């Protein structure tokens, strides 16, 4: 049995920064589950089903990527899937403190599952789903920041076809 990692997130929508982490994790682990979690603190633009579709379309060329969703606690989900690790992306030092708190709590909940941090490629260090949605809302050019399928989906959401 190979090594399994989970890359959790809200992915509302997936950006090229997320895709960079997914591609790199796919080279390290035998299988990576990209798991859509609904963050109650955020009001999502896309439904979970839409996010799953966008992720599947954007990662279809990676054979060891599985797209899933869960409304359970991450560590319960990871245990259920027999995961070896959680993968988290870091854009900047400002992400680290928040991620460290989450990792500490996760380690308390399940000490057998490691969390691995991957630094985002410098070209995406500023990129967030929130920024992409804001730019798309005002019809800014987001090409190169998101997969083409996401660019099209955002144009539909914001009625610029």
Strands, total number? 5
Secondary-structure element pattern, one letter each: EHEHEHEHEHH
Look at the structure and give the mean pLDDT.
92
| Quaternary form | single chain
Q: What's the architecture, going by CATH?
A: 3-Layer(aba) Sandwich
Radius of gyration: 15 Å
Count the DSSP helices.
6
N-to-C terminal Cα separation, in Å?
46 Å
What is the topology, as strand order, of the major beta sheet? 3-2-1-4-5
The helix fraction, in percent, is 40-55%
Quick one: overall form?
A: globular
Which ranges are low-confidence, i.e. pLDDT below 50, for 5 or more consecutive residues? Answer: none
Top-tier CATH class: Alpha Beta
Biggest beta sheet summary: 5 strands, parallel
Share of β-strand residues: 15-25%
Question: Any idea what the CATH superfamily is called?
Answer: HUPs
Number of domains: 1
Q: Can you tag this structure with a few keywords?
A:
alpha/beta, 161 residues, single chain, 6 helices, five-stranded parallel β-sheet, Rossmann fold, PPAT
Overview of the molecule:
The chain has 161 residues and is an alpha/beta fold. The chain has a single domain, classed as HUPs (Rossmann fold), CATH 3.40.50. It is 42% helix and 19% strand. It has six helices and five strands, in the order βαβαβαβαβαα. It has a five-stranded parallel β-sheet, sandwiched between helices. The protein is globular, with a radius of gyration of 15 Å. The model has no long low-confidence stretch (mean pLDDT 92).
